[in-house]
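Hey L., structure's done. Input below.
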Amino acid sequence: MVDPELSSPTGSIQSAPSSLPTTSFPSTARQVHQLPVLKEQLQKVALARANYHVRKVAILVRWLSDNSNAEDDVTTMANLMEDFDIQHESYNIRKTDMRPTWRLSQRIREITLECEQTEQHCLIVFYYAGHGDIIDGGLNFVSGMPGTHPVPWSKIKPDLFAEEPVPEKIDVLTILDCCYAGAATRSGSQVSRTTQIIAACSAHQLANPRAQKTSFTLRIFRAVQKFKGQQTSLTTTALFQEIRREADQREEQQRERGLPTTPKPIMETLTGIQPIKLHFKDTTMSSSSSPSRIPHPSRKVQEKNVLVKLTLQGHRREFEVFKKAIEDLPDIMKVDVTDAYKTTQSIFILLNMSWESWAMWTMVADLEFVGITCGPSLLQPQPLAEIPIRAFGENRRPGETENTK
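Output:
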């Protein structure tokens, strides 16, 4: 029997639609950065502190009676919202609804208006679990049943990420557990509030439904448990770091067993430079006398194994200034420069970083994802291992015995 954790992903749709253009992860256009601007933006991210939300509300969306077992995922997510003291409501899309998009948009606008009227800093969590499909080049929430109307992400996105006018005191965290979820992470303008998306998979992948195997929602739940009882709050960047660490570890196991790899979750900050911080409702910390039964993230969490390419305008002088500038960044933003090359008008730099660093950097920098590394460069000479040598008779001083200390 195949371990469900290591099974190949399946879903309601068997292959990525050909109408969707092929892009690398993340799905943003490459950008040449100017050093002074990049330095200033990275410093802003480093100095930014997560906002404290006075009001926190979540809307948990699924299709009623679909075949993905999304109901279980919504229950799991509701339990997580309770952990973070976030008021939540379940929103069921009915297959008989002739205007599901309009009704969902109306409810989102009502929640947003309620938050605006408080005139305080608020957090809205939008969560969807179920089937996803690419229709007319865009992500749609679908029921998987005939005769139902799909809900286009492009129609409800403006209600969550409004730009005219900008509700500056409302941060938005979107979590999508569906096929092709990464198609929702494309583009975003720079405004003062923070809006982020955590997606179960890229724009070209199928997500694992709860009905058949471990869903993305369940993986989020497991990741949160590793922090619960160890600290009083959790940033979305640290959460994503743990989710990706577990995903990378799982992928390595799948390759060793010759199994197809499961979807890779992605995260994108559409606007803002302040991380979204989720405060645990129960702030009781585990003591040495009463340790948590679930181990907290190990030192491997901070391993720098995400290789990216950064393109910088300028030449060698700008590269030297860049290396000096990144030395002053906080630990969660530390990177290793592995190589750099000069072109006619710019330089591109290869950086190794942790997933948390990646999530922080991509708030302001355009990083081209290269891959996950497993150890140092193969071109660098490897140090010889030190072999302990026992002191035999020829190495002892006269009169010294083997037991002499």
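Residues 1-29, 286-301, 391-396 have pLDDT under 50 and may be disordered. The two ends are 58 Å apart (CA to CA).

-- N.
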